[in-house]
């Protein structure tokens, strides 16, 4: 392993997403970030310069680095989620550049669902608009741990501190009402590079970090001591060879927390208990493994475990539920209605379910609840009550983003209908998941 590779492997990984209203400059910010941090290849920059000249522009349009679809380049907007991977000496990054249009809110849900940080852009001339509030609300719903406010186009308001201060105050107050714990506001100009990678010479009144400095230093919390350990079983390994005649291992990616050899565990939904006899990682036995490592766990007892089961510590196992109340972001073009039959995919387990009720739809501009909407259409966010055919080992989303989330799927063609988060919507209210005794009708789907 080279010195450079060793240094890179020692750095932490930050997943972050950019969001904001149309024309706030998200793609330009991402392009500037990649360009000024020297994270793009020469041929990529040459292609952007050529495309910019063909459009009559004297300087490279850095937004073209992320707007990869032809429709995006022709319209000058972001439609799809563009993922970029880059690294500095201090940290590695996975970036999701998400669309700003209202009709592509579902794409922002996709990009932010695994993010450690969301960068919300605001045009300094327009201030906080409805789509700004919408994206802040989505970040709060998805429990993104950190939110940064980038007040862009400061060059067009003469780098005025009062303009920045007013926008930062308004956004911070709104974010606090959503339960977002921390906001870092940064005045920038993505077009000229002010406070993106290098500090601005035009805003000496600002003493905070640049965008890149904040990305490099924001804490990425992986405190295993406060995580609920969960291993969704993906595959059962039984070689039955002369070398391993009795080997039985349960393979999967640890969703959260850590597992140790010797600890007591429970397999759900069966409720059978055993002890971790061994943990295999990359062909070697280890005494402890943690998220997000992919491992094979061996148990001391020969019990029935299959794909879709969940292994958890016996003293910290989730409750089994069949009635689930959750917040969903509807992503399909076809509506979701009460009484609809769906498949529910939770980690590696997929079960039949029925949408029993849609109590409300959320209006994101003022956070009001529209009661009994009847159905949810594309880009709607609402509350649903789902009844499953089989019990699920489901956590509250506020406790675990991996094991508190699930998908609703169309059973006829496998289309993803909604992305769901179990429990209460925002961090300002306590989350809970209701459980009821098992009751099912295999043929009628009336659970």
Report on the structure:
With 447 residues, the protein is α+β, with helices and mostly antiparallel strands. Helices cover 18% and strands 34% of the residues. The longest helix is centred in the middle third of the chain and has 17 residues, at 161-177. It is globular and about 70 Å long.
In brief, what are we looking at here?
The chain has 447 residues and is of the alpha+beta class. It has eight helices and 25 strands. Strands 7, 8, 9, 11, 12, 13, 15 and 16 form an eight-stranded antiparallel β-sheet that branches. A six-stranded mixed β-sheet has the order 2-3-1-4-5-6, sandwiched between helices.
Task: Please render the helix and strand layout as text.
Elements: H1 3-10, E1 12-20, H2 26-36, H3 42-54, H4 70-75, E2 82-87, E3 91-97, H5 105-112, E4 117-123, H6 130-141, E5 146-152, H7 161-177, E6 183-187, H8 211-217, E7 231-232, E8 235-237, E9 249-253, E10 258-260, E11 264-268, E12 272-281, E13 284-286, E14 288-290, E15 294-299, E16 310-313, E17 320-330, E18 336-337, E19 341-346, E20 349-363, E21 368-371, E22 375-376, E23 381-393, E24 405-409, E25 416-422
Number of strands: 25
Secondary structure category: alpha+beta
Terminal-residue CA separation: 56 Å
Helical coverage, percent range: 10-25%
The unreliable regions are: 1-10, 69-79, 429-443
Main sheet record: 8 strands, antiparallel
**Number of helices, counting only DSSP H or I runs of 4 residues or more:** 8
- Strand proportion, as a percent range, falls in 25-35%
Rounded to an integer in angstroms, the radius of gyration calculated over CA atoms is 24 Å
Mean pLDDT: 84
Overall geometry comes to globular
């Amino acid at each position: 392993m080279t010195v450079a590779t060793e240094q890179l492997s020692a750095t932490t990984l930050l997943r972050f997403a950019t969001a904001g209203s149309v024309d706030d400059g998200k793609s330009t910010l991402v392009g500037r970030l990649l360009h000024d941090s020297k994270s793009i290849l020469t041929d990529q920059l040459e292609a952007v310069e050529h495309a910019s000249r063909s459009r009559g522009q004297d300087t490279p349009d850095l937004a073209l680095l992320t707007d990869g679809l032809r429709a995006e380049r022709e319209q000058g907007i972001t439609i799809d989620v563009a993922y970029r991977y880059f690294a500095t000496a201090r940290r590695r990054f996975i970036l999701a550049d998400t669309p700003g249009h209202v009709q592509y809110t579902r794409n922002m849900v996709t990009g932010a669902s695994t993010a450690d940080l969301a960068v919300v852009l605001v045009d300094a001339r327009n201030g906080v608009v409805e789509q700004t509030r919408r994206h802040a609300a989505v970040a709060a719903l998805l429990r993104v741990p950190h939110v940064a406010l980038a007040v862009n186009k400061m060059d067009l308001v003469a780098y005025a501190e009062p303009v920045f201060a007013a926008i930062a105050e308004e956004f911070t107050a709104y974010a606090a009402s959503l339960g977002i714990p921390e906001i870092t506001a940064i005045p920038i100009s993505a077009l000229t590079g002010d406070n993106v990678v290098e500090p601005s010479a035009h805003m000496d009144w600002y003493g905070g970090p640049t965008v890149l400095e904040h990305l490099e230093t924001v804490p990425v919390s992986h405190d295993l001591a406060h995580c609920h350990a969960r291993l969704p079983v993906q595959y059962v390994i039984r070689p039955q060879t002369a070398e391993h005649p009795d080997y039985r291992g349960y393979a999967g990616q640890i969703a959260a927390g850590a597992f140790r050899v010797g600890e007591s565990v429970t397999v759900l939904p069966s409720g059978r208990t055993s002890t971790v006899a061994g943990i295999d990682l990359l062909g070697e036995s280890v005494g402890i493994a943690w998220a997000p490592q992919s491992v094979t766990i061996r148990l001391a007892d020969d019990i029935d475990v299959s794909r879709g089961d969940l292994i958890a510590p016996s003293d910290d196992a989730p409750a089994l539920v069949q009635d689930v109340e959750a917040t969903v972001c509807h992503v399909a073009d076809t509506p979701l209605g009460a009484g609809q039959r769906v498949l529910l995919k939770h980690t590696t387990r997929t079960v039949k379910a029925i949408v029993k009720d849609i109590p409300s739809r959320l209006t994101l501009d003022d956070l009001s609840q529209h009661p009994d909407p009847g159905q949810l259409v594309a880009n709607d966010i609402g509350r649903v009550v789902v009844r499953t055919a089989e019990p699920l080992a489901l956590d509250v989303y506020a406790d675990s983003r991996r094991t508190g989330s699930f998908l609703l799927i169309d059973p006829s063609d496998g289309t993803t209908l909604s992305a769901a988060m179990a429990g209460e919507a925002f961090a300002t209210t306590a989350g809970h998941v209701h459980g009821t005794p098992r009751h099912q009708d295999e043929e009628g789907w009336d659970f």
